[in-house]
Design a protein that fits this description.
Residues 8-331 form the NADH:flavin oxidoreductase/NADH oxidase N-terminal domain. The chain has one domain: Aldolase class I (TIM Barrel). It is an alpha/beta fold. It starts with 11 loop residues before the first strand and ends in a 34-residue tail after the last helix. 49% of the residues are buried. Helix 3 (150-169) runs parallel beside helix 5, helix 5 (204-222) packs parallel to helix 6 and helix 6 runs parallel beside helix 7. It has helices at residues 43-49, 79-94, 150-169, 184-189, 204-222, 246-258, 273-282, 301-305, 315-319, 323-329, and strands at 12-14, 17-19, 23-25, 55-61, 99-103, 122-123, 132-135, 138-141, 146-147, 174-179, 227-231, 264-268, 287-290, 310-313. It is 30% helix and 16% strand. It binds flavin mononucleotide. Flavin mononucleotide is lined by residues 26-29, 59-60, 102, 104, 178, 180-181, 230, 268, 290, 292-294, 313-316, 341.
């Protein structure tokens, strides 16, 4: 017996695609790639299991050696990466799914032990985040990064567009730029991490410039209707403080990005409801909303109210490969196990139980 979950089970246009429902798998790092950044063999099964969501956004994927922060995260800038991702995208497509690769440059959230070239991390400014990071030899302090020169900032933009082109070659339906959670793009936004005096630091316009240039470059490379961005206005992780001007920076940034006609903006919501309402008004393309820890009973409320066009879920999808079937059947959800989030193999990755055939309404 299906419980109607309208309007989550109505179709929606996102960029050049018509998605069958408004449920999105939020991007989640799982640290199970090979040391050269090629996605692991089990990743295909992991994503295929979740192909019934309207859209899969992959784990954060680095656009370059410098862009890697954590251990064994995948990349998308070499022929081996492209071949690895192609297996995943084609298997997801065979199941009727859609998949955007999230491009994540970690910036200063990086440890040299985790990257292929073992170099010092790069960032807007030489300011350490004041945080630790897991490495092959355990937790270590993150060292002070090296500030990118102006020329290197431009080269980093070019690395993003090369990675976007590689993602499309690998069969991805599009690219989500990771502009959230204290990584490189957000490091440019925050005066606590960006004390630059060139055109990428100082005023709101200057601090937003890197994000806008990355989005513009990728849109030119693969089409605006295959380009998207994730933002987390107000995130205060790992030394990131956007200051009193933060909300105004996002109003400016979203209005500028809106002009590009991107596929969607993905908001990882913190707590500023008036800012979220402003973003909704400033943005004419689809808006994906992720509210951390959203209770099961609230799924669909933001789409119903018109605040969002799609809703993204992380841990619930991680722990429930048959998330869509469970929602439709109003069945209980598995709990996620944080011990198996990062690294390891099949356990906690592709072995979460699905509903029995008797109650599973999927076909
Ligand atoms: C294991 C794990 C890994 C994550 N990795 C990423 C990531 O690579 N990129 C990203 O934008 N967010 C990442 N997130 C954040 C999620 O996308 C999401 O915003 C967060 O889990 C809150 O939503 P939820 O309560 O529905 O899980 C991660 C979350 C988890 C639990």
């Amino acid at each position: 017996m299906e419980i109607p979950m309208n309007p989550m089970f109505t179709s929606v246009r996102v960029g050049r695609y018509m998605l069958p429902n408004r449920l999105v798998m939020a991007p989640m790092t799982r640290s199970r790639a090979a040391f050269d950044g090629t996605p692991g063999e089990l990743a295909t099964e992991y994503y295929v299991q979740r192909a019934r969501l309207g859209l899969i956004v992959t784990e954060g994927t680095q656009p370059s050696d410098d862009g890697q922060g954590y251990l064994t995260t995948p990349g998308i800038y070499t022929p081996a990466h492209i071949a690895g991702w192609r297996k995943i995208t084609s298997a997801v497509h065979d199941k009727g799914g859609h998949i955007f690769i999230q491009l994540m440059h970690a910036g200063r959230m990086s440890h040299p032990d985790n990257t292929p070239h073992h170099r010092q991390g790069v960032a807007p400014s030489a300011i350490a985040p004041g945080a630790g990071m897991f490495t092959a030899t355990g937790m270590q302090d993150i060292p002070t990064p090296r500030a990118l020169t102006t020329e290197e900032v431009r080269r980093t933009v070019a690395e993003f567009s090369h990675a976007a082109r590689s993602a499309i070659e690998a069969g991805a339906d599009g690219i989500e730029i990771h502009g959230a959670n204290a990584y490189l793009v957000q490091q440019f936004f925050a005066p606590s991490a960006n004390t630059r005096t060139d055109e990428y630091g100082g005023s709101i316009e200057n601090r937003a410039r890197f994000a806008i240039e990355v989005a513009t470059a990728i849109a030119e490379e693969v089409g605006a209707d295959r380009t998207a961005i994730r933002l987390s206005p107000g995130t205060a992780l790992w030394g990131i403080d956007e200051g009193a001007e933060g909300p105004d920076l996002y109003r400016y940034l979203v209005a500028e990005l809106d002009k590009l006609g991107l596929a969607y903006v993905h908001i990882l919501h913190q707590s500023n409801e008036p800012l979220l309402a402003d973003i909704r008004k400033l943005w004419r393309q689809p808006l994906i909303l992720n509210r951390p820890g959203r209770p099961r009973g609230q799924i669909g409320a933001d789409v119903a109210s018109g605040l969002a066009d799609l809703e993204a879920f992380g841990q619930m999808v991680l722990a429930n490969p048959d998330f869509v079937a469970r929602l439709k059947a109003d069945a209980a959800m598995n709990e996620s196990d944080p011990k198996t989030f990062y690294g390891g193999a099949a356990k906690g990755y592709i072995d979460y139980p699905v509903l029995s055939a008797r109650t599973d309404t999927s076909s």
